[in-house]
Design a protein that fits this description.
The complex is a heterodimer of chains A (171) and B (268). Chain A is mostly helical. Chain A is built from seven helices and no strands. The chains are: A mainly alpha (171), B alpha+beta (268). Chains A and B meet through helix 1, helix 3, helix 4 and helix 7 of A and helix 1, helix 2 and strand 1 of B.
Chain lengths: 171, 268
């Protein structure tokens, strides 16, 4: 129940931030993919089932907002949540490098949602998309890592527990 | 193989399979889903939260803006006095010529609650809806110029499709020459507003103002849209392609005005 409440809180906070504060940066050519950050961090912290659930919920909201090609954000973010959740069991989640790479990878994969829009566009549009993502993806990862750093400062101890292999059958 | 996996793992796999199936189903039947109704429910749930976040943001912005506005008020008071003189003179001359008085335009003030669209803003939510007289297809403007049109109306809020929506098209004219064309948003080769003109139309110069032409039934004539920033030809060479820098600054959207169609019809 506690995790469900936290999930709903993250869901609401992400959507409110995305709709109110973050879009203002777009005018300056900066896009921070807060949905990808939230999905990756939630999946790292709570595992694959919860990660894919948050990804699916955020994806549905983003799809409704976009109004075109319903289901594309939901598909990508739910799978992203699942994969990151699975990976997080074998990775050192408190490593800044791991966090950076996971968030950057997640943001890059999420940007694939723009592909249907680019399908009938000339090569210049693809190039612009690639250049923009080359800037936004590391920026998103940087914001995610800074956020984790701040959360860790607030908590006073590592955010993630040790990797566990409990539940697996012993050979 | 699956039987050796722990229970939580099997549950996670089944869950993601369900989500993938639902997403694909939505992709296929998405057009039949009542999206406006769902967005209306979302708006109803999120509007109070958006207002709280925006209140803090606006308080800071208002303080900064207040300082600028004091100076501007002084300038406008002087200008207003001059305009009153001109209006009196205009009224006297109209009386002499027997012209009818133009009716004042009624605008519905609104606050912009959210803007969405990735990576370019393509829609916005206003805090006014059908209760305040907003209707679908009403034009939405800011003090800088045209923002878009109302696409969906709920009782307490409305969704605006911005000029930067891929499906948006506005009949426009270049102010000085009156050359007409259709303004639309394109991602190719980069996100921008483009005014497509007849190849034999008069030449258009960089820096000229672009206004709505009134040929589109959705937008009244004379609303400022932007400024010509580049002039070229389409890749096929069949039409002139004029790049337009929007008058509205997407980074500073706070307040807007809905121009009801009845009022729009009154515009000259």
């Amino acid at each position: 129940m506690k995790t469900l409440k936290a999930l709903l809180t993250v869901f609401v906070v992400v959507l409110v931030l995305r709709g109110t504060v973050l879009w203002r940066f777009v005018g300056y050519g900066v896009w921070i993919d807060v949905a990808a950050i939230a999905t990756v961090l939630w999946a790292m912290s709570q595992g694959a089932p919860w990660g894919s659930t948050l990804g699916f919920m955020l994806g549905l909201a983003l799809d409704l907002d976009a109004g075109h090609w319903l289901g594309r954000h939901a598909l990508v973010l739910s799978m992203l949540g699942y994969v990151i959740g699975q990976l997080s069991r074998t990775l050192v989640r408190d490593s800044v490098r791991t966090q950076f790479l996971l968030i950057a990878g997640g943001a890059a994969i999420h940007q694939l949602c723009a592909l249907p829009q680019l399908a009938d566009q000339p090569s210049e549009a693809w190039l612009t998309w690639a250049i923009q993502n080359a800037l936004w993806v590391p920026l998103t990862a940087l914001v995610g890592v800074v956020l984790l750093f701040l959360l860790r400062l607030l908590r006073g101890r590592p955010l993630f527990d040790d990797v566990t292999i409990s539940g697996y059958p012993t050979p | 193989m699956g039987g050796n996996l722990p229970r939580a793992e099997r549950r996670g796999g089944a869950l993601v399979a369900l989500y993938v199936a639902l997403s694909l189903l939505l992709w296929v039947v998405g057009e039949r889903v009542p999206q406006p109704a769902l967005r209306g429910i979302g708006g109803l749930l999120f509007s109070p939260l958006d207002r709280v976040v925006l209140a803090a943001d606006r308080a800071v912005a208002a303080w900064v803006e207040n300082r600028k506005l004091h100076g501007r008020i002084a300038e406008l008071e002087i200008e207003n006095a001059q305009l009153k003189d001109a209006a009196d003179e205009n009224r006297r001359l109209r009386d002499l010529l027997g012209f009818a008085q133009a009716s004042p335009v009624r605008l519905i003030p609104a606050e912009i609650l959210t803007v969405s669209g990735e990576p370019v803003p393509s829609s916005a939510t206003l805090d006014v809806g059908s209760r305040r007289g907003v209707r679908v297809d009403d034009a939405v403007i800011t003090r800088e110029g045209l923002l878009g049109r109302v696409a969906e109306v709920h009782s307490g809020d409305a969704r605006v499709v911005l000029l930067t929506d891929l499906n948006s098209a506005v009949a426009c004219a270049v102010e000085t020459t009156g050359v007409q064309g259709v303004l639309h948003f394109t991602l190719s080769p980069r996100p921008r507003l483009v005014l497509t003109l007849d190849p034999f139309a008069d030449s258009v110069r960089v820096g000229e103002q672009v206004l709505t032409s009134g040929l589109s039934r959705r937008f009244p004539r004379g609303l400022r849209v932007g400024q010509v920033s580049r002039v070229g030809r389409t890749s096929e060479g069949l039409a002139q392609e004029v790049e337009v820098r929007p008058a509205v600054r997407w980074t500073q959207l706070r307040h807007a005005f809905v121009l009801p169609r009845a009022a729009a019809a009154d515009r000259p």
